[in-house]
């Protein structure tokens, strides 16, 4: 019973990890950019939701939606300013640029909100019984929202024209351009969507745990762990990887001594193991 | 005497006489820090600038050097400079151990793996309380002592650090000028081609990486002796990103650039203190701007300026 509870908790967090990871893996698959600032969009999702909730008299869902829209906008600007000018250069130039962006956003948040942790308290939160297991209402909301978004995104990529354009650009940007795809626009759109997904994840997890401006650093590594486990550019892999990481962490906290202190280390250890033994990820194709 | 040799002599003289001009403790302290950062940055530049790989775990090696000295002096009373040598060796060993599996990967994969290793080490420092005392850190690290002379003031440490930086510069320059150094550059520019020509890329990368980490460990060791306290924040990503900024903005693959970067990023935040909360976001902006407009860093800028002056002189 305890085991099943741990698995459920882990799966809920895992879905959040998967959301954040999908954004990162899309950005890599389509723009070929490793976005080190990804965690900061996650953080913005949390902080913007918090700010809207404290300033305006709106519900949590509206606050989250607004936060995500703002994060998408920031993502658009970021892509235009820090990624696009460096398209032609060596790949790690872009990576360093995103690192700079990350430092800017993280410390900007510190300057605006201060270092103290905050909490998003929701009056309607409370425990809910799901087949003998306990979940808070917020966690249930997070789980359901996450699953809906993942399914929606997969359908979008598979069945819409824009989705097809994205897949084409991921395969071969030049050929896609020849076929009439507006490649720079797809790049901007993808980056923005990635930022938005990270923001949703941050906004949801932020309502479950406390938030503070450096949470992005923590989140980006989780997202990277998942992306590497699933294979860079592989969306279903990211979903599987997210669940795997979430459940592994939850079980380690439950069953390993010192589990809590080293919980985050599980992700790092998994990255290292996968990169050394199977760098294309558990589900990816040959690197 | 050649121009280069005269320049070196002038530089050494300038450094030696600096404490006569800069006498207040605060600025000397900044110079000591700049020197320590310079050591770290030179170590990173070996990997980033000459080998062409981005290591995101740099702070961990600084921390290893610092903790090594802390533990050796607290538990065994290891004298200076033996602890420095041991700390460097231990850090170099870790560099080898971490580099061994990681250097099979390149680019973003290598960056992520090194970050992972560094964070694991930080978690160990934080949680292995019986050895490292966790977040409480290791205090009361004795100052360096040599033949009865105690390094007690900022001025003393300034000379010690300057000597080590000088040594690091000599080592870097000779390494780069050697056959191995040329191999490094070949690997950086085009690893596949270098391998095709018979350069054993992996082996050279491993040596270069370990060498860079030895320098970084030295910085950590002296840091422990200087501030007399070590805690897990020494392994934090903040140091890694600061040193990366120093190397990139200063100019990667160049000793002069790295030194300029180290000085700039140690002094600048202090002078920007009035801007307080905005200086760190400004850092981030600076990195992005530098990467977009100054891909070769300040050093590249200086090169271009001096080349233009030379060209206009020749034309006149």
List keywords for this structure.
heterodimer; A: 287 residues; mainly alpha; two-stranded antiparallel sheet; 11 helices; 76% helix; B: 316 residues; 14 helices; 1% strand; globular
Please specify the SSE layout and strand pairing:
The complex is a heterodimer of chains A (287) and B (316).
Chain A lengths: L1 H30 L6 H18 L4 H24 L7 H23 L13 E4 L2 E4 H23 L1 H11 L1 H6 L4 H26 L6 H16 L4 H21 L3 H19 L10
Antiparallel strand pairs in A: 1-2
Chain B lengths: L2 H19 L3 H26 L7 H19 L5 H21 L4 H21 L1 H4 L12 E2 L2 E2 L3 H24 L1 H11 L1 H6 L4 H27 L9 H14 L4 H17 L7 H15 L3 H19 L1
Antiparallel strand pairs in B: 1-2
Helix pairs in contact in B: 2-7, 2-10, 2-11, 2-12, 3-4, 3-5, 3-10, 4-10, 7-8, 7-10, 8-10, 11-12, 11-14, 12-14
How would you explain this protein's 3D organization?
The complex is a heterodimer of chains A (287) and B (316). In chain A, a hairpin with a 2-residue loop joins strand 1 and strand 2. Chain A is an all-alpha fold. Chain A has eleven helices and two strands; from the N terminus they run H-H-H-H-E-E-H-H-H-H-H-H-H. In chain A, strands 1-2 form a two-stranded antiparallel ribbon. In chain B, strands 1-2 form a two-stranded antiparallel ribbon. The longest helix of chain B is centred in the C-terminal third of the chain and has 27 residues, at 201-227. Chain B is mainly α and 316 residues long. Chain B has helices at residues 3-21, 25-50, 58-76, 82-102, 107-127, 129-132, 154-177, 179-189, 191-196, 201-227, 237-250, 255-271, 279-293, 297-315, and strands at residues 145-146, 149-150. Chain B has 14 helices and two strands, in the order ααααααββαααααααα. In chain B, strand 1 and strand 2 form a beta hairpin. The model of chain B has no long low-confidence stretch (mean pLDDT 86). Chains A and B meet through helix 4, helix 9 and helix 11 of A and helix 5, helix 11 and helix 13 of B.
């Amino acid at each position: 019973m305890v085991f099943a509870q741990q698995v459920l908790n882990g799966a809920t967090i895992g879905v959040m990890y998967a959301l954040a990871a999908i954004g990162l893996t899309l950005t890599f698959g389509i723009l070929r950019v490793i976005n080190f600032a990804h965690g900061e969009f996650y953080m913005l999702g949390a902080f913007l939701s918090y700010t809207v909730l404290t300033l305006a008299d709106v519900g949590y869902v509206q606050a989250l939606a607004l936060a995500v829209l703002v994060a998408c906008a920031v993502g658009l600007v970021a892509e235009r300013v820090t990624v696009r000018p460096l398209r032609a250069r060596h790949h790690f130039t872009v990576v360093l640029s995103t690192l700079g962006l990350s430092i800017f956003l993280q410390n900007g948040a510190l300057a605006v909100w201060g270092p103290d942790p905050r909490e998003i308290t929701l009056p309607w939160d409370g425990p809910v019984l799901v087949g003998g297991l306990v979940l808070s209402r917020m966690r249930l909301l997070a789980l359901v929202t996450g699953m809906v978004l993942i399914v929606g995104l997969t359908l979008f990529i598979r069945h819409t024209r824009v989705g097809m354009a994205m897949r084409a650009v991921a395969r071969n940007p030049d050929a896609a351009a020849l076929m009439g795809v507006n490649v720079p626009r797809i790049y901007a759109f993808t980056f923005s969507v990635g930022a938005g997904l990270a923001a949703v994840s941050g906004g949801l997890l932020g309502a479950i745990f406390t938030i503070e401006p450096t949470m992005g650093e923590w989140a980006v590594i989780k997202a990277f762990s998942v992306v590497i486990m699933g294979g860079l550019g592989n969306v279903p892999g990211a979903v599987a990887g997210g669940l795997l990481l979430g459940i592994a962490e939850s079980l380690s906290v439950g069953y390993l001594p010192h589990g809590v202190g080293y919980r985050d280390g599980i992700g790092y250890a998994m990255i290292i193991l996968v990169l050394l033994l199977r760098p294309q990820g558990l589900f990816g194709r040959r690197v | 005497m050649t121009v280069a040799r005269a320049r070196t002599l002038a530089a050494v003289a300038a450094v030696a006489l600096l404490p006569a001009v800069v006498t207040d403790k605060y600025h000397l302290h900044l110079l000591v820090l700049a020197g320590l950062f310079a050591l770290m940055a030179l170590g990173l530049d070996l990997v980033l600038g000459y080998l062409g790989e981005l290591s995101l775990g740099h702070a961990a090696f600084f921390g290893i050097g610092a903790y090594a000295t802390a533990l050796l002096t607290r538990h065994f009373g290891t004298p200076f400079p033996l602890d420095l040598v041991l700390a460097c060796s231990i850090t170099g060993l870790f560099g080898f151990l971490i580099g061994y599996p990681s250097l099979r990967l390149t680019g973003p994969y290598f960056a992520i793996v090194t970050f992972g290793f560094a964070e694991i080490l930080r978690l160990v420092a934080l949680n292995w309380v019986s050895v490292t005392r966790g977040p409480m850190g290791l205090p009361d690290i004795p100052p360096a002592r040599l033949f009865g002379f105690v390094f007690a003031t900022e001025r003393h440490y300034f000379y010690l650090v300057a000597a080590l930086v000088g040594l690091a510069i000599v080592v870097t320059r000779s390494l780069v000028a050697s056959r191995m150094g040329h191999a490094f550059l070949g690997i950086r520019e085009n690893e596949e081609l270098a391998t095709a020509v018979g350069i054993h890329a992996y082996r050279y990368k491993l040596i270069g990486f370990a060498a860079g980490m030895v320098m970084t460990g030295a910085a950590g060791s002296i840091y422990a002796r200087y501030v007399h306290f070590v805690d897990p924040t020494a392994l934090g990503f903040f140091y890694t990103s600061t040193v990366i900024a120093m190397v990139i903005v200063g100019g990667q693959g160049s000793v002069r650039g790295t030194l300029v970067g180290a000085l700039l990023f140690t002094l600048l935040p202090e002078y920007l203190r009035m801007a307080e909360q905005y200086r760190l976001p400004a850092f981030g902006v600076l990195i992005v701007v530098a990467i977009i407009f100054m891909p070769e860093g300040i050093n590249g800028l200086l090169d271009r300026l001096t080349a233009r002056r030379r060209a206009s002189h020749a034309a006149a």
